[in-house]
Amino acid sequence: MKTSAINRYTVTEDAAAQRFAEHFADRLRFCHDTGSWYEWTGAIWRREKTGLAFEWARQLARELALDDDPKIKAIAGKSSFAAGVEKYARSDRAFAVTSDIWDSDPFLLGTPGGTVDLSTGQMREADAGDSITRMTAVAPAMTPHCPTWIRFLEETTGGDAGMIRFLKQWAGYSLTADTREHALVFVCGDGGNGKSVWLNTMAGIIGDYATTAAMETFTSSSTDKHPTDLAMLRGARLVTASETEEGRAWAESRIKSLTGGDVITARFMRQDFFSFVPAFKLTVVGNHQPVLRNVDDAMRRRFNIVPFNRKPAKPDRELPDKLKAEWPAILRWMIEGCLDWQANGLVRPQSIIDATTGYFSEQDLFGQWLVEECDVEPSNSYKWETTANLFASWTGYAKAAGEAPGTTKSFAPRMVRSGLTRKRTGSAQGYAGVRLKPKTAYDPLDNDR
């Protein structure tokens, strides 16, 4: 740092902070939402954790302390002077920012080799003005030549070209901060079938843009999640989670909010609350699929069940290392998937459609009750059953399955969503198009199902 012209300022902490800004305005930013300094590395704005701004303020103070003027020397030599300079600099317009400027373009991707414009797939030189704070682990190769990766996918999917295309699109979509699909992926299957290799490879390549969350963030519990659980998700483009316990149930309202473009409020430990719109794609792997207590259209739109049912004849313990050598080419493959997704949307193959449909059929206890206990014919208005009888039958069926039946208030919209119409006959309220099968109005003593 040159000391010339420093002495033209009145030597106060505020004035020295102005000089500090002249030197470092192109290299530092202070984010008031996170309370952190960020340094421009030449590729991204990296959150600074080593006190660099304070160190540079100390350098300025030491240079001022060399002045011949004893008053300047005495002021700049105080131990508190550098801290005061840094404190004043935080609010200087050259440095002060808020978190909404970071990574604001959903289709710009920071990499070690430059910035990729995901709308075109082209890479250009990094620009501090893009305010990018994250970076992939590798720069993309020029071509997507990754034979080990392709062979792995073919073996894992049994050569299902449609599933491979979907996985490629999902990987590319996960490079962006766009969430228009309002979707999540659950990769299911027994151990040793490649699902973790697939997810770890994708997350490893995405680098800073990926984060791992506890499954408890997305499943129901008797206690509220701490807002720091959600704060950690801000800015991520891929969030991964592993389901490990059988019998969990999805936190359905939270799933809808996190994948539906809703504004989320969160905070870091001992900091103020802030709001953000999630940008991540939730990808879960597990052996057991969590329970859905309410199968509705919103949940049907969001879920994609991806079955990984094949195990390699001879597991390759060195496969992750072999794949890591192909990361640059795999990233280019992912970018191609992003372009395909933008052009065509997520193209779901029949294997995923069937697996997802099967999952919802298993989860839809209400639908099972309609099939097993009711004679349903929505177009036949002559069929009719009282609400009291129907709700009594449903209550017994649900309790026998270990589920809470809800209330008559929640029962009504479920009947309507099933295509049935409310109809009053005489003094009794009921539904047209449905009748309890002759076996029952539900007999609570009959538990033989």
Q: Biggest sheet: strands, sense, closure?
A: 5 strands, parallel
Distance between the termini: 82 Å
Strand content: 15-25%
Q: What fraction, in percent, of the residue positions are helical?
A: 25-40%
What is the level-2 CATH architecture name of the largest domain? 3-Layer(aba) Sandwich
How much is the radius of gyration in Å? 29 Å
CATH fold name of the largest domain, please? Rossmann fold
Which CATH class of the largest domain is shown? Alpha Beta
Total number of beta strands: 19
Number of domains: 3
Low-confidence parts? 2-9
What is the overall silhouette?
elongated
Total number of helical segments? 16
**Mean pLDDT reading:** 90
Which class do the helix and strand fractions yield? alpha/beta
Widest sheet, order of strands? 9-10-13-8-14
Report on this structure.
The structure is a single chain. The protein has 449 residues and is α/β, with parallel strands linked by helices. It has three domains: 6-101, no CATH class; 147-362, 3-Layer(aba) Sandwich (Rossmann fold), CATH 3.40.50; 364-436, Winged helix-like DNA-binding domain superfamily/Winged helix DNA-binding domain (Arc Repressor Mutant, subunit A, Orthogonal Bundle), CATH 1.10.10.10. It has 16 helices and 19 strands. Helix 1 (13-24) packs across helix 4 (81-90), helix 2 packs across helix 4 and helix 6 crosses helix 12. The radius of gyration is 29 Å and the shape is elongated. Residues 2-9 have low confidence and may be disordered.
